[in-house]
Amino acid sequence: MSISFSCTFHKGINPDNPSDEILLNTTESSCIQSQLIKKVTATTGIIWFNTNENAYIISVPTATIDSEDLGITCNLPLSLKKDGLKVKFDGEYRKYDGIPAFKGSGQEYYYLKLTHIKKLK
User: What is the pTM of this model?
Assistant: First the structure.
């Protein structure tokens, strides 16, 4: 099943096997133009909708117990836009040029350009 979004997906999610992987082509996404901060691979996070930023975010705990990277997704497939969904992904964190409406201590906001994402059970 192919899914059309602001980019082209090489492989869609199979409803019979929700852990199927999605490979993403993100050349058309508008938020990938900002400065590259870091690349990540096989990173586990949780998807949730941030009402302050009006966007889906992948939250990833970092090295310390009270800090997290918050990736405002540039190209999250519609089928994965579900609060509390655990995923493993590869991607690029890029400089977030907005001012978060709320930023807790230890939280870092980035744009997140996904290159690969897999739903976990």
Answer: 0.76
